Amino acid sequence: MSRTAYVNGAYVPTRDALVHINDRGFQFADGVYEGIGVRRGNMVDLEAHLDRLWRSLGELSITAPMDRGPLRVVLSEVIRRNLFSDAFLYIQITRGVASRDHAIPTVDIPASLIVTCKRLNFDGVKNRALAGVTGSTQPDIRWGRCDVKSTGLLPNILAKQAARKTGAFEAILFDSDGYITEGSSTNVWVVTEGGDLITRPTTDNILAGITRARVKTITEKLKISVKEAKISIEDAKKAQEIFLTSATSCATPIIVLDGQKIGDGTVGPVAKRLIDAYFQFTDA
Ligand code: PMP
Description:
Blueprint: E1 4-7, E2 10-13, H1 24-28, E3 31-39, E4 42-43, H2 46-59, H3 68-82, E5 87-94, E6 112-119, H4 122-131, E7 133-139, H5 154-165, E8 170-174, E9 180-183, E10 187-191, E11 197-199, H6 210-221, E12 226-228, H7 233-237, E13 241-246, E14 250-257, E15 260-261, H8 269-282
Parallel strand pairs: 7-8, 7-14, 11-12
Antiparallel strand pairs: 1-2, 1-6, 3-4, 3-5, 5-6, 8-9, 10-11, 10-13, 13-14, 14-15
Bound molecules: 4'-deoxy-4'-aminopyridoxal-5'-phosphate.
4'-deoxy-4'-aminopyridoxal-5'-phosphate binds at residues 35, 182, 185-187, 207, 209-212, 245-247.
């Protein structure tokens, strides 16, 4: 059975879904995106994802192709037509189609909207989190506006690929001063040698993860204090725990970084509590 995508007003079989070669998303990565987890038919943290999407659009002065209400309907319809229960929903909005020119068109062009969906095994995500994954540090060669969820993901892809070549699951990016920024598609949290749970402030050129915000809310409920601070790779390697958050990884521990065990090389107690609490939230 072919999957169904939504492309500029129509639900189409994914194999027939096409965008114009002069779409500015294709020509310049002049677009933004969101990725939303779907657990048992529910879009996880949908409103927070839509808030961030509208913020990203505003930062690039792209006019939303439709209001939030109709967009919610399109998203639900894509999930329904694909008959998915657990899935990953992908929304891409580009500035639209115009004759190729770096300058942003002076006339209003309609933004392009593409929604696709693929099956995501959330039980597998939970099992992977409970087993932990490996990381590889990579220089953060991305731009200075990583707060915008831009589709310009080539630096992220190169970093992930370099990490995968070392056998690691995720690339842990570091800035020119040797401080961790975030993962190539995740936010990074550390339980330091001294036992503090820290994560980099979102004001410091990283993406404000929706899962990061959700996990922060969960820590408040569990009365686990969180500090927003930078951490160097050197200190992270001495940490008790490191874990990643994202819509497709809940709170997944890095148990080995650059071949070196983190803590005792197993999933730590803080991550374990957060994984349990996260799935209590999604499955409620
Ligand atoms: N940082 C980057 C660079 C990302 O690409 C992502 C996920 N797309 C995240 C963090 C995590 O964000 P979220 O929790 O909203 O999935």
